[in-house]
Amino acid sequence: MLDDPRTVRVTGDETAAIHRRTADLHAEEEPERFADGQPVPEAYCWCNLTSGNGSRALWLLLLPFMVVNLAHWMRPPAERHSAAVRLYGVLVRLVALSLTVLLTAAACEVALDLTAWQCAGSARCAEERSWLGFLSAVEGGWWSQPGRRLALAALVPAALVGLLWYLSHRTWSAYEAQRPPRGGADGDGTPDRRLRPALGRPGFWYGRRLVARLRAAHTAAGFLTVAAAVGGAAARHDRQAAGPAREALGWALEGALLLGAVVVTWVVCRRGRSEKRLDHRIDRAAVSWLPGASLALLGLAVLYAGWSRPGWRSTGTLPGDTTFSVITLAQGVLVLSLAGVSLRLYRRAPHTRTVLHGLGGPAVAMLACALGGVMSGGVAQRVADWLDGPATPGTGQDPIGPPVLLSWQASVIPVLLILLLLPAGVLAVRTALTARRLAPVVEAEYEGERPDTVRTRRIAGARARAGLTDRAPVIVGIVSGATLLLGAGALAGAWASGTVPGRAFAGGHPFVESAAEAAQALGSWLIGFGFILFVTWGRRAYKDASARRTIGILWDVGTFWPRAAHPFAPPCYAERAVPDLAWRMSSWTGRTGGRLVISGHSQGSVLAAAAVWQLPAGTRRRVALLTYGSPLERLYGRWFPAYFGPGPLGALHRELHCWRNLWRRTDPIGGPVNLPAEGDKPEVDHRALRDPVVYGRTHQHPLPEPILGHGDYQADPVFAKERAVLLDRLPPALPLPAPGATAAPLPGQRGDGTPRGDGPGTDDGTGAGEEAQGGDGAQGSSGRSSG
């Protein structure tokens, strides 16, 4: 990024830090070196927050949680305290809660139903697996009773829930627990009595209270799900074969579990995010008592199930069909309700650039549910296939199989893939036609050059492929809509076909039955293959740094947002990176009186804008913003309109002294921010940069110049020119503070940028970005950014 092998860390740690060239380490004490106004570049590197050690690969297993968290931030813009806004947040948090219950239910299905109930209760299955011998009903040992087998197997899903709690708590302490210093003041240091853009509010990057509440609630929901699976089976048996005392005990346990579920739901719905001020409080009652009480109920359920019941035999399956059917139905109702609220919000302030007419959040929430279903169903199908031998799960002799609903869900996967072939083919044809149509446009832009058909075709093709990004919402909408309809069909089919394993499609026409069975078998393998692909990709990333960097690029977008819906999602790196940048910018300008340009590439431009929003007004007047390859409007503005839509970006344009955005038509990620001139402020967007810079061979460029697309904007001469213009437009450097004088007050977050000062003062520059191993980045005014 700094284009120099000799660099030194100025401030920060091995996770995220500010770097300079070694020769510029003490630039503030050597003003004579910079008398010509040459800026001092700094680089901010956050790559270890997203793609550091191998444990980041395990975050792939948390992908559904991350996706549903994104849905929270995709709501259409509205008034801050609107009832519809609060309802939107509640619905997303309930969808997130259902995913936790789904994950725990899947673990219970594998450990309790398939292994402890079906396989250990089957003489054939238990005989083929010696490690299950002590649980086998045939052996007649102490553990052979179904209740005791279930009680022992409950340790697996309970341990999974405990692991998720631990990871959430640990990552919060490591990434997000740093408190911004500002109290109940806005970004200008004054009381927050007016409506500021959300990213400029003091508490936006500090969600401690909500994350703690949600972590406690989701942990409790997981433990209660395990307790219901263990204690519910024993209670159903006691209602049929035991005396009134034990039956009453079973009813009491189930009533306590129901009460716990109501309390968990109330805690999730009760409170959303608090952004107006820093909220350091913790809801002790919920955080301290809720997980402990649910764990105690789990212990009681285990003791109750372990009670001796000599006449109890495990036959058939546990009632997993009912559990998964209720979860699926609840998710569908919640997503449809979320769609209704989103449409209501969108109609209040419609904008043509908002994706799917405001339905982006519900569509992404539906995808999160689909991912959760694929992962849970994939685990159940593969384990059932392993336990059931060579037969398709649930179809062999003495069958062992997952709930019928999972068979139906597996059968619709081939149908969904076939449906996707049509829009994929349409996009391929449209891209080819667009490339052909752009050929004369490309040649006209390089007027005076000798036409080269091959060269023109490559440039036009790069532009056409870059435009596919703008059609992504259509694909997301089609996938989400098809998933919702096919999921409803699978749910109806499961209810109509009963609960007998292997009989999901029985009773129909022989041809239909055989076709459905074939689809179920193919879908079973596909759903299992998808889960195995997840695991193998994560394992490769655990060992391979290059694969880990690829995952890090995915996390750049997915984990930029705070955990507002799901506490078990991967941690938000911006709650560390944004304060880092704002702290650096404010401390340096307050200490030196200098001025700076914060320069951001790709995701670094989003961090740079977020950090500038957090600056006090006095500091913001000394900062210019240079963005390039920026997804601020093209991706964030369309998908997250409440936070990066025309209103918030326009407010940032008015508050900044100057801002310039560079973009290319061949860039599949970056684009214009579409902010016109206002008063004395010129238009933010530069005209589209040529890519490649030179069409053919020249004396200065004897070899063909590459098509750069999203990378290496500094190679264009326009970059250095526009940076210099921004520096010249900033006000002159302030006199240095007198020795011993108090420095200017610091704001509430970290920063990066590249400044430049005049006269006897010192000049400095910093930028936000990721080094080459991290992907995208923002960099100092004269630094190099690699991505």
Automatic annotation (TrEMBL):
Residues 736-787 are annotated as: Disordered. Keywords: Membrane, Transmembrane, Transmembrane helix. InterPro entries: AB_hydrolase_fold. Residues 750-787 have a biased composition (Gly residues). Residues 739-749 have a biased composition (Low complexity). The chain crosses the membrane at residues 57-75, 87-107, 150-167, 216-236, 248-269, 289-307, 327-346, 358-380, 408-429, 474-498, 518-538. This is Integral membrane protein. It comes from Streptomyces lavendulocolor.
